[in-house]
């Protein structure tokens, strides 16, 4: 039986074989050493030479591709088996759940099991303490009046409007924070028919004359 088959990534290319094996719990990975493919490297060299000189070398490179394809299956299997043997040293096998995990973060050495099956009690205690501390902080905050100075009986309004000069949004004050002009309402009248114009109107609503004409 070959381990790691459920959690690895094939990083192989035309020039060789390489595999990334991952911890079943935290997914930290181990990259196996690159195993060069002799046929792949030879074909690559022939392709490079063939692109320069053509002729026989190009035909040889083409033939090399077919040989590489024919040998890829067995060569890949051998490289994968070799990579598995090398990677076994970097993982621990939990006999309870069958997971392959990294010994640095996911293995409970004292229990001989992965931390999913036998959690580290010191780590769990620290996690529980922190979690409970957050819950208690929420409870404590809710017990304190956070808006004691806010008088909700006083009438309030947002009073959000626009500057009559530049149309910038304003929320109070005597002057516009964008153009600096006074925000006091100014009455404007149409020069053609005398109708009072709205503060932001560009044209008269009665006769259509442009503001300021």
Annotate the secondary structure layout.
Layout: E1 8-10, E2 16-17, E3 19-22, E4 29-31, E5 35-36, H1 38-53, H2 56-87, E6 92-93, E7 100-101, E8 107-108, E9 113-114, H3 121-143, E10 161-162, E11 169-170, E12 188-189, E13 196-197
Antiparallel strand pairs: 1-3, 2-5, 3-4, 6-7, 8-9, 10-11, 12-13
Helix pairs in contact: 1-2
Domain DZANK-type: 163-208
Organism: Cystobacter fuscus (strain ATCC 25194 / DSM 2262 / NBRC 100088 / M29)
Pfam family, one: DZR
Polypeptide structure, described:
With 213 residues, this protein is an alpha+beta fold. It folds into two domains: 8-114, no CATH class; 159-213, no CATH class. 33% of the residues lie in helices and 14% in strands. The protein has three helices and 13 strands. The strands form six sheets. It has a three-stranded antiparallel β-sheet with strand order 1-3-4, with helices on one face. A two-stranded antiparallel sheet has the order 2-5. A two-stranded antiparallel ribbon has the order 6-7. The longest helix is centred in the middle third of the chain and has 32 residues, at 56-87. The model is unreliable at 40-71 (pLDDT under 50). It comes from Cystobacter fuscus (strain ATCC 25194 / DSM 2262 / NBRC 100088 / M29). It holds the Pfam family DZR. This is DZANK-type domain-containing protein. Residues 163-208 form the DZANK-type domain.
């Amino acid at each position: 039986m070959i381990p790691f088959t459920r959690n690895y990534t094939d990083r192989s290319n035309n020039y060789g074989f390489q595999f990334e094996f991952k911890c079943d719990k935290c997914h930290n990975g181990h990259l196996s050493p690159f195993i060069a493919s002799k046929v792949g490297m030879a074909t690559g060299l022939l392709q490079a030479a063939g692109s320069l000189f053509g002729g026989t070398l190009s035909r040889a490179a083409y033939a090399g591709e077919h040989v590489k394809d024919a040998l890829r299956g067995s060569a890949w299997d051998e490289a994968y088996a070799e990579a598995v043997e090398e990677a076994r040293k970097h993982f621990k096998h939990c006999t309870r759940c069958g997971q392959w995990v990294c010994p640095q973060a996911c293995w409970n050495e004292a229990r001989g099991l992965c931390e999913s099956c036998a959690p580290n009690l010191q780590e769990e205690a620290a996690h529980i303490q922190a979690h409970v501390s957050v819950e208690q902080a929420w409870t404590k905050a809710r017990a304190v009046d956070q808006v004691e100075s806010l008088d909700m009986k006083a009438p309030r309004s947002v009073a959000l409007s626009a500057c009559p000069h530049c149309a910038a949004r304003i929320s109070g004050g005597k002057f516009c924070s964008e153009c600096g002009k006074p925000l006091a309402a100014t009455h404007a009248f149409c020069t053609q028919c005398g109708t009072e114009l709205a503060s932001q109107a560009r044209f008269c609503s009665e006769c259509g004359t442009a503001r300021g004409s």
